[in-house]
Amino acid sequence: MSLIVVGSMAYDAIETPFEKTDWIVGGAATYVAYAASNFVKPINQVSIVGYDFAQEELDQLKKRGVNLEGVEMKKDKKSFFWRGRYHLDMNTRDTLVTDLNAFLDFNPVVPESYQGSEFLMLGNITPSLQISVVKQMKKRPKLIAMDTMNFWMDSALDDLKQLLTMVDVLTVNDSEARQLSGETSLVKAARVIMKMGPKFLIIKKGEHGALLFHEDKVFVAPALPLEEVFDPTGAGDTFAGGFIGWLASTRDISFENMKTAVIVGSAMASFCVEKFGPTRLKELSRPEIDARIRQFVDLVNFDIQLV
To answer: If DSSP states are collapsed to H, E and C, what string results for 80-95?
Structure first.
């Protein structure tokens, strides 16, 4: 039931209309690992950090069952750093600073001890690096999932299209789906994208839930109505972590179980936004997670009589 997670481990400075923090751990692989570790262990992490990445943060990940053998430390560079400011609607943000630092040297290497992992989550990094990870796997994982973004659609489209022929699941947001497909309708966009390679497509719609597509099937997952969104940073990566963590724990990649995985991912993302960074994810208990998942199920359960 092992899972490989590839992506960034970083530090963020986040400003919302209500509060701000100048230094908190972040990065896609960090969020994915914290979410997925609630369901499956070990999490075989592949990333890179600088000399400033706190040992305390690494120790916390280890306690959660995250294997750090594949995490390189650059002793002469700082860690990847991002600073951003959210607008009042909390759906849009401005990137103020992006310092790649050690991440400039990221050349992911899959350790021998990671070989044989059944599930692979490719976080949002350069498509050529994602391709290199897939090619390093001596045996193809049971399921390969990936995330990407509009920047790579603009700057590395050929590599991205090659990668799409190598994976099973693609997760994007609605604007990215429209850009990649050239279609306005998300249903048409899904059809176009799945012809590019992935068997399953998840289109995230933020506060409006998510759509799961497979062949001619579609599943609409709700979003939990929240009174307050404290910090949306990492919510998409947390969704991915919950999703792939559930699949890895059950080893069932049927469409029916994918539907459950989307609900689990949505539940994990709803926790993420409650505090800055991954703070809420660090303190979660399994009973809390199970209760939140039941809330999502209740959103779509109803009895009806037709006369």
So the answer is: EEEEEEECCCCCCEEE
- CATH code where residue 121 lies: 3.40.1190.20
Domain that holds residue 188: 3-300
* Sequence-ordered list of residues with C-beta below 8 angstroms from that of 290, at least 6 positions apart, any chain: none
pLDDT at 208: 83
Q: What is the pLDDT of residues 195-225, one digit of tens each?
A: 999 999 999 987 788 999 999 999 999 888 8
Question: How does the average pLDDT of the chain come out, rounded?
Answer: 95
C-alpha 179/C-alpha 93 separation (Å) is 19
Question: How many angstroms separate the CA atoms of 265 and 284, rounded?
Answer: 14
Cβ contacts of residue 102 below 8 Å, gap of 6+?
A: 48, 49, 50, 74, 77, 78, 79, 80
In this prediction, residue 90 carries a pLDDT of: 83
Q: How many domains does the chain have?
A: 1
- Do residues 265 and 292 touch, judged by C-beta distance below 8 A? no
∠ CA 91-96-100, nearest 5°, is 110
Note the pLDDT of residue 305. 76
Bin 13: left if φ > 0, else alpha if -120 < ψ < 50, else beta: beta
